[in-house]
Known about the structure:
This protein has about 500 residues and is an alpha/beta fold. Helix content is about 50%, strand content about 15%. Strand 9 and strand 10 (about 230-235) form a beta hairpin. The longest helix has about 40 residues, at about 360-395. The chain is globular and about 90 Å long.
Amino acid sequence: MALSLTLPRSTDGRRRQLPLCSRSLVIIGANGSGKSRFAATLAGSLGERAYRIGALPGIYGSASKEAPDIDRLLDKLRRDELDNLLDFKLRRTSDASAKLEPTRLDTLIDLWREIYPNHNILLDSTHFAFTRDDSTDDSPYSAARLSDGERAVLYLIAAMLYAPKGAVVLADSPEMFLHPTVMQSLWNRLEQLRPDCTMVYTTHDFEFASTRQGASVIWVREYDPANSQWDYEILPPGSPLSEEMYMSLIGARKPVLFIEGDGVRSIDSKLYPLIFKDYTVKSLGSCNKVIEATRTFNDLNTLHHMVSRGIVDRDRRDAGEVDYLRRKNIMVPDVAEIENLLLLEEVVRAVASARGYNESTVAKRVRQTIIKMFAAEYREQALMHTRHHVKRTVEYRIDGRFTDISQLERHIAGLVGEIRPRHYYDELCRQFKQYINDADYESILRVYNQKSMLPNSNVAGLVGLHNKDAYIAEIIALLKADGEAAERIRKAVTGALHLQN
């Protein structure tokens, strides 16, 4: 059941209820807008469910029970580790098969090495120490010699490990001390670490807010201290680009990428932010909105000096339409729709390998299935492509100026002869048949529009997953983990978009 939050009092005197559509909420506002007090008031209404963390008080000390500092957390980790070892020794006296279970400290060390691959954590009976593989001096050093960013990462991992089960974690300034290359991957991993918790982020950094895809968002504009009321707006997920949000995008440091989808459920909104980590990604819904927003944003380049790109599905666009869009900074993939990106051979291979399956065998089976499906439907597909071609051509040609209705009628009557739909259809059937004969998998993915293709390909079953949703979730998880599989997937997708990330 979705969590419902009782929000602080708004300027109309009401305290609204906010059912969360996901396990995260971003409270964003300018410095001095009252967003921190807004979050504190929200925390007060949550009672014991609230668990407050923040890198600044966590690193430099805090007397707050709700926001434990780093020294307190490290001491607790050390004591818990010693208690666990003692318990293990006691159990072994009566049960020789007793196993030493993974501890919070093990998780901390694993995540620390994931964020900083060359860094090590050591523990003796009294304190933590750190070493670096890439240092000429391999002598251990104390936590006091860590950088603020390293201490922030250490603190945030430890703090999340000790969050009460089912807590609402209120993270203040989650971007503080963190390098942009670390920020997104760290919080993605922390959310994965504690899926039982609800995350509430308070920030003025739109760059951070844009990384929380699918989160509910509250925009705090102003605080009235005399009446303890806030002027704020609840932004619906996937809402269109408003003027206020547009101005915030101008203030972002990263280039902007406009995409299709609703910002919550669409594959676009889950996939592209993890492919293009150096972009601020904004879901706009329809392809027409993506095209218009990219054009408008780039027309105002002299104002904000930022690059804007868009991505739209290829659908049944011909080479001329695709070339036109690409010249306007609209990326069009070499596949018919976004689901087909997940069937690119290198993507299938990366997932299969990551899950311990023979990638060549899986890729071959998927190719054979897709080609067989296309062979059964290629004439139907050719007809749909022809229909799109006729519709687009008529739209272009009918837009001319005519002096009277008779001239318009003559023009319309002559269009069939000019467009020659049967000739176009026959030519497509010939091309599609050639793709089948040549087993040209890449060309088939480029022209095959079929929503059932992903589940019917059985790619999920071939890699040990239950269904297409599990397959999509696995790809998202691999991208968030940022390992070898993620690099292979990113390279395949950016290659299909003719843009190397």
